[in-house]
Amino acid sequence: MLKMEHIAKVFRTDTVATHALRDFSLHVKAGEFVSVTGPSGAGKTTFLNIAGLLEPFDGGSYQLDGISVHGLSDSQRSKLRNEKIGFIFQGFNLIPDLNIFDNVDVPLRYRGFGRAERKRRIEDALAKVGLSARAKHLPSQLSGGQQQRAAIARALAGEPAFLLADEPTGNLDTTMARQVMELLEQINSQGTTIVMVTHDPELARRAQRNIQIVDGEVADLTLRQAV
Amino acid sequence: MFAYYMHLAWRSVKRTPVISSLMILTLAVGVAVSMTMVTLQHVMSNNGLAEQNNRIYALQLNSASTGPASSTNTLKNGLPYLLSYRTAMALLDSNIPEHQIAMHRWAAAVSLQDNRVKPSKEVIRVTTKDFFALFGVPFIYGKVWDKQADYDAQYQVVLDRPTNERLFNGENSVGRSIQLNGKPYQIVGIVEEFAPQPSVQDLSQGAFGGNAGIYLPFGLHRALSMMPYGTMSCSITGDNIQFPTDPVEQYNFILQNRCFWLQYWAELPTAQSKTAFVDYVTGYYEEQRKNDFFEREFKYALSTPSEWLELNGVVSNDTRVMTWMALTFLVVCIINSIALLLAKLLRQSSEAGVRRALGASRSAIFSQNLLESGLIGILGGVLGIGFSQLGLGFVRMLVSRDEAQVVYSDAYTIAITVLLALLASMLAGCYPAWRISKTSPAQSLKSQ
C-alpha cells in the first residue's frame, strides 16, 4: 500500500538546513494498522505530510498503492490524494460554517460524484460513525468526540484504501479517545489501511505495528499481534 | 463544480458581510463613475447614420471672404459649416448625386383648423424633396411633394409619425391640413420618425437640436421670406455694410450676399460619382472665383456622417479626458478591491488547506476563489447600475434640455456596466486567488 525508500526531506532557510527525514524507508501493507511514535521534532508530521502527498520530498522514492508519486503534477497528486487517502487531524479541521453533512460532502465534490451518489455515501459514512442524527448540526454544536467522528466520516466517505491519522485522540478525553480508537480499529478490521501518528504509548500499542521515528529516521519497528 | 463554487462564494460573502460590502461598494462606485462617463461618451459618439457612411456626404467649401469683416462660423478644418443660398442652388442643378438636399431649420406655431389641438411652436425642417430618400426615411402614408415644390411655393407638408399621432391620433391624415402660423398646409405624406441622436444631419444647434417632426418644401422659403432658425453667418468684405432691420430686407440680404445658412448633403454611392461631383464643385468654385464670389483658394470637404460628427466636435475633448479619468478611478478601485480581497481570502487560507488535503487541486482552489470575486463583481455591477443612474441624473441636471433627453443608459451600457464590474472583480480577484491557491496545505493545517 505504502512504500517509501530512502526518503529525504530538508527544510532550508538562508542560514540553516534542517533534515526532517533522512534515508527514511517504510513499507506498509494493505490492511495494516501502523502507529508512528517519536519525540517532538522527530519528523512524524513531515512523514505524514509526505505520505499524504501534502508535501514534496527531496530524495528517495514513494509508491502509493503501486503508483510512484514522484513527478506527478499537482492535479494528479490531488486526484490521487482524493481517491486513495483519508485524513484525520488532531484538531478535526471541520469547516466551521458548513454543517456535518456538507463537511462530509467536501471530498466527494472533488471526486465528481453525482448528487445521489454523494448523498448515499454521506449517509453511510455518518451512520458508520453514529452521527446520522447530527447531519444538519454545525461542528460547534457537537462535542469534541462527535467532531472527530464527523472528521472520520469525512475521511471514510470516499472509501479510501488508506487512512492517515495525526494524533486523532490528542484533543479528546479518555472516554472519547477510547471510542474513537475503537472506531478506527473497526474501520481497519474492514480492510482499510491506517497509519496513525500518536504520542500516546497506550494507543500505539493497540496498532499491529509501531514505528518509532527519531531524528528523521526509523529507529524501531515493533511487530505486535493484531488487537 | 460551478454551482458548488457559487454556493461557496455566496456563503463566504454572507460570512464576512462588512468586508464583502466594502468590496461591493468600492467596485460599484468605480464602475458607476466610469459608466456614467462611458454612457455620456457613448451617447455623444453614437452615429445614427452609420449605415450610410461612405454613401452620403456633407459638403463644405472654402467660401469665407478674406477681408476684415469676415465673421464666419467655421469647423475644425477651417471651412464654413454651411453654404450660401447661391452655392446651394448651383449644386442642386447638378445631376451627379443620386440624391442631394439643401435644407435649413425653421419654426412655426402649429394648429388645426378645428382647434382640437392646443397650438404649439414646433421645429420644422425646410428641405428639398430628396431628404427622405437620402436619409432613408420611409413613408407610412402618401408620398413626398413634387420636385417643383422645391422651387415654387406649394403649401404642402410631411409629418412624422409622432406628430401625426399627436395631431390626428395616428390616422391616415394625407389630404387633410394643418396650420402653420395660421396658414393652411396640405398634408401629402406621413413618415416614420427620423431623430438620430446626435442629430447628425444638422448639428448647427448643438448635438441634439437638429431633429424635426414637420417637413416643408424648400420652395416655400422665398414666398415666406423664411429666416433660418439656427446658425447663420455672413462673410462680407467692404465698409459700411449694415445688416438690414426689416425682415423682408434681411431675407433678401441673406439671399444675395455671402451668407451661410444652408446645410447641404449629397448621396454619392460610388467612387466615380464622388470624383465627378468633386470635379463639378471644383468647376463651379473656380468659375465663381473669377466672378469674385469666392475669394480664397479652392478647398472643400466631403464628410461622411462619422467624419461630420468628429468635425463638429460632438464628442468633446473634455468628455474624452473625463472618461479616461473615470477609468483611472476604476483602476484605483480595483487596486483597493485587491487589497480587501487579499485580506479576506487569506483569512480563509486554513479552509483552503483543509480542502487541499481532501483532494482539491490548486486550480480548484483558484477557481473557487476567483468565482467568489466574480460574484462580488456581479453584485458590485448591479449596485453600480443604480449608482450610474444617479450619476446620469446628475449629468442631466447639468446639460441642456436637448442633451438631457438622451443622456440615459441603454441595454448596451447596462450590459457593459455589469461586464466591466465582472471584469474588474475578476482582475482584482486573480492575485488573491492565486496567492491562496499557492498556500502549502501542510503549512495551513499546521497553523490551525
UniProtKB/TrEMBL annotation, chain A:
GO MF terms, alphabetically ordered: ATP binding; ATP hydrolysis activity; transmembrane transporter activity
InterPro entries noted in UniProt: AAA+_ATPase, ABC_transporter-like_ATP-bd, ABC_transporter-like_CS, ABC_transpr_LolD-like, MacB-like_ATP-bd, P-loop_NTPase
One Pfam entry name: ABC_tran
GO cellular component: plasma membrane; transmembrane transporter complex
Keywords carried by this UniProt record: ATP-binding, Nucleotide-binding, Transport
Start and end residues of each ABC transporter domain: 2-226
Family assignment from sequence similarity: Belongs to the ABC transporter superfamily. Macrolide exporter (TC 3.A.1.122) family.
PANTHER family per the UniProt record, alphabetical: ABC TRANSPORTER ATP-BINDING PROTEIN YTRE, IMPORT ATP-BINDING PROTEIN
Protein name stated in the entry: ABC transporter ATP-binding protein
Organism, as annotated: Shewanella mangrovi
From TrEMBL, chain B:
Keyword DNA damage in record: no
GO molecular function: ATP binding; transmembrane transporter activity
Keywords from the UniProt entry: ATP-binding, Cell membrane, Membrane, Nucleotide-binding, Transmembrane, Transmembrane helix
Keyword Transport recorded: no
InterPro entries: ABC3_permease_C, MacB_PCD, Macrolide_Exporter_MacB
Annotated compartments: Cell membrane
Domain of life: Bacteria
Residue span, ABC3 transporter permease C-terminal domain: 326-441
GO cellular component: plasma membrane
Coiled-coil ranges (or none): none
Primary site of residence: membrane
Regions that span the bilayer: 324-346, 375-399, 411-434
Topological category with respect to the lipid bilayer: Multi-pass membrane protein
Species of provenance: Shewanella mangrovi
Name of protein: ABC transporter ATP-binding protein
Domain MacB-like periplasmic core: 20-222
